TrEMBL record:
Protein name: Citrate lyase subunit beta
Keywords: Lyase, Magnesium, Metal-binding
Keyword Ubl conjugation found: no
Gene Ontology MF terms in the entry: lyase activity; magnesium ion binding
Gene3D superfamilies with a match to the protein in the record: Phosphoenolpyruvate-binding domains (3.20.20.60)
Keyword Isomerase: no
InterPro entries the record matches: C-C_Bond_Lyase-like (IPR039480), Pyrv/PenolPyrv_kinase-like_dom (IPR015813), Pyrv_kinase-like_dom_sf (IPR040442)
PANTHER family per record: CITRATE LYASE SUBUNIT BETA (PTHR32308:SF10), LYASE BETA SUBUNIT, PUTATIVE (AFU_ORTHOLOGUE AFUA_4G13030)-RELATED (PTHR32308)
Length: 122
């Protein structure tokens, strides 16, 4: 394909994420990061993959595991946001706007539930 860097694969990767979701599957995992010494590059690549919709990553060396785990586990802020969404959804069924103006619906509530499930694994 002549792709010179990872950005050239964004379209294909996004299609994989969308296809998995359309099929009712869990978010896919990213493929391996081939440079076992480049942990900063691994972190950046994981962050980009997470932004594309991936959930997790395959590793080829044990030193990569803590970086991958940190990249894919929710942050404290994400946990707090998810808790806010879940509390609001429990009080009012259906789509609604939170006091801060954020719109939530079933898809947002499902994502919040997934966030809290991941947080419990930490």
């Amino acid at each position: 394909m002549g792709v010179r860097d990872d950005a050239g694969l964004d379209y294909s990767r996004s299609r994989v994420v969308v296809a998995a979701r359309a099929a009712g599957l869990a978010p896919p995992t990213q493929s391996v990061h081939p440079d076992i010494r480049d942990l900063d590059g691994l972190m950046a690549s994981c962050a980009h993959g997470r932004a594309l919709g991936f959930l997790g990553r395959a590793a080829i060396h044990p030193r990569q595991l803590p970086v991958i785990e940190k990249a894919y586990l929710p942050t404290q802020r994400e946990i707090e946001q998810a808790e806010t969404v879940i509390k609001a959804a429990a009080m009012n069924q259906g789509a609604q706007a939170l006091p801060n103006g954020t719109f939530i619906d079933t898809a947002v509530v499902t994502a919040a539930q997934r966030t809290l499930t991941l947080a419990q694994k930490n």
